[in-house]
Amino acid sequence: MFEDFTEWRRDVGSGVLLHGRSGGNGPPVLLLHGHPRTHTTWHRVTPLLVDAGYSVVCPDLRGYGQSSKPPTTPDHAPYSKRAMAADGVSLMRGLGHARFAVVGHDRGSYVAMRMALDSPDSVKALAVLDCVPIGEALARADATFAAAWWHWFFFAQPEKPERAILADPDRWYGGDPDHMGIENYRDYRRAIHDPATVRAMLEDYRAGLGVDREADDADQAAGHRISCPTLVAWSARDDLEMRYGDVLDIWRRWAVDVRSAVIDSGHHMAEEAPEQLAGELVRFLSASAP
Q1: C-alpha 269: how far from its chain's center?
Q2: 6-288 placed in CATH 3.20.20.70
Q3: Residue 267 appears among annotated catalytic residues
Q4: 55, 85 in Cβ contact below 8 A?
Q5: 142-166 as b/e, with b when 16 or more CB fall inside 10 Å?
Q6: How far is CA 37 from CA 96, 124, 203, 273, in A?
Q7: No. of H helices and E strands in the chain?
Q8: What confidence category does residue 200 fall into, taking pLDDT thresholds of 50, 70 and 90?
Q9: What is the dihedral of CA 181, 187, 192, 193, to 10 degrees?
């Protein structure tokens, strides 16, 4: 896993250290994982991107995996997507990449989107996988949404979700080493059994219902849009289309140049359909190159 990649812990400011790996040569691409995975979820995609001529950077988001878990605040702002996005920009600059493409899956897609909005001079292409913006999701949060995505609201409660998850993390989160890959599964399992990591991952959701939604709503009210080329991709066997209908219509409210792809997989597309996902990313990044 991650052959010829360099593993590191890098200071991105404010006392936060990000753990991750980087490798390859060529145009830089930052890959951001979702909940409850770590950076190793990309282990089947990264060699394909490297072979296609890209330099790939995969960190654990703050709070996840082996990255720092800073103290929180009443508004949960230390786990906002704005804070995580700033981590990513600082990381890439520290690695010598002033401009780069960013790919985010699940919760990582919210970080990637925020990075493109807050640091447009740094992000030259954006790919968001299996998501619509947090503000858009919450604006459509009817009873059907709440029945299917109840965890968003449960995770935001104080104390109870930590107790429920840590009582039996394996049963709560599941995971199959045969499907995930044994080393990826071990890294993921280490994370979900760590009380500090579980607490920090929940802080991500708590921030989502507050400061993250406020940031999205403020951008919409101000007419801010993502200026770089944007790929919106979703899993054919997940529920994004069923939940939102025309996914691209939502994203056109946020980005000026939107392309699409449908991946023949369940939610964890980097593990389930790495060849198709990598192919779509390479086509998009090649077409978006200046």
Answers
A1: 12
A2: no
A3: yes
A4: no
A5: eeebeeeeeebeebbeeeebbeebe
A6: 26, 25, 15, 16
A7: 16, 8
A8: very high
A9: 120
230, 126 contact by CB (below 8 A): yes
Please choose, from the candidates 281, 278, 231, 270, the residue with its C-alpha nearest in 3D space to the C-alpha of residue 251: 231
Average per-residue pLDDT in the chain? 96
Pick the closest to residue 113 from 81, 143, 90 (CA basis).
81
Annotated domain spans of the chain: 6-288
Of the candidates 60, 87, 106, 216, the residue annotated as catalytic is: 106
Q: Are 9 and 15 in contact (CB under 8 A)?
A: no
CB 65 within 8 A of CB 19: yes
Residue whose pair of structure tokens reads 């951001």 in the numeric block: 32
Where would I find the H helices in 193-264?
A: 195-207, 213-222, 240-244, 247-251
What is the structure's pLDDT at 202? 98
What DSSP state is assigned to residue 78? Answer: G
Here the tokens at position 47 are 């060699």
Mean pLDDT of the region 219-234: 97
What is the per-residue pLDDT across 75-132, written as a single tens digit (0 to 9) for each? 999 999 999 999 999 999 999 999 999 999 999 999 999 999 999 999 999 999 999 9
Which of 118, 194, 224, 267 is labelled catalytic? 267
Q: Using the predicted structure, report yes or no on whether residue 163 has a pLDDT greater than 80.
A: yes
CB 110 within 8 A of CB 81: yes
Unique residue bearing structure tokens 């996914």: 247
Q: What is the CA radius of gyration of the chain?
A: 17
CB 121 within 8 A of CB 99: yes
